């Protein structure tokens, strides 16, 4: 089992819309997975399929199992679990997870994007704005360290500068892939909040022009 195999399965599911079958298959695969993917990764993907199918309870169960497994995963399983918990009416538990993620100061901009999208879906435009801004700052701070550009706030760097290694082009490119999505979400939240355009919105304009 490889990442490409999992991607193919999810692509087929987008075409067929049969999320339940995909969730069941992934859940079964997680029990015997070998090769280039971790059991936790497959469990997380299974949880996402259950959530797409509308079964947030099963999704939460799979997300918890992915967290307990402790294997390598994409993003942060707590963000996905928070999404399921919100849908289950367990907002306090969900926000506790969001607070835990914030306290850990993640360096993956996709974690910020996921949390921002979750909060925006719950009608929390202010929270979504803050998370999207922090995610953009992570990308810009990474760009600063790599090439000396960006508009991140130097007084409040979101990424600690205690690393001795300079990020490489591939690291920056992966982070830059998240930037447009973060800025788009941030812009939608600003419109909802009635805020005027700022430097981040100007940056989004530049990205869209290019």
Automatic annotation (TrEMBL):
Biased composition (Acidic residues): 153-164
Cross-referenced Gene3D superfamilies: Tetratricopeptide repeat domain (1.25.40.10)
Organism: Actinomadura montaniterrae
Protein name per its UniProtKB record: Tetratricopeptide repeat protein
Pfam families: TPR_19
Disordered, as annotated region: 149-170
């Amino acid at each position: 089992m490889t990442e490409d195999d999992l991607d193919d399965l999810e692509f087929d599911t987008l075409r067929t819309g049969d999320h339940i079958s995909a969730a069941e298959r992934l859940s079964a695969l997680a029990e015997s997975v070998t090769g280039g993917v971790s059991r936790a990764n497959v469990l997380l993907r299974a949880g996402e399929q259950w959530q797409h199918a509308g079964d947030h309870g099963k999704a939460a169960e799979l997300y918890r199992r992915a967290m307990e497994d402790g294997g390598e995963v994409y993003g942060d399983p707590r963000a996905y679990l928070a999404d399921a918990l919100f849908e289950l009416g367990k907002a306090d538990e969900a926000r506790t997870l969001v607070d835990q993620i914030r306290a850990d100061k993640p360096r993956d901009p996709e974690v910020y994007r996921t949390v921002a999208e979750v909060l925006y879906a719950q009608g929390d435009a202010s929270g979504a704005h803050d998370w999207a801004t922090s995610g953009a700052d992570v990308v810009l701070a990474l760009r600063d360290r790599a090439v000396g550009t960006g508009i991140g706030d130097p007084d409040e760097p979101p990424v600690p500068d205690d690393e001795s290694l300079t990020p490489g082009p591939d690291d920056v490119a992966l982070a830059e892939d998240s930037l447009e999505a973060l800025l788009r979400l941030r812009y939608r939240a600003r419109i909802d909040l009635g805020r005027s355009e700022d430097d981040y919105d100007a940056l989004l304009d530049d990205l869209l022009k290019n």
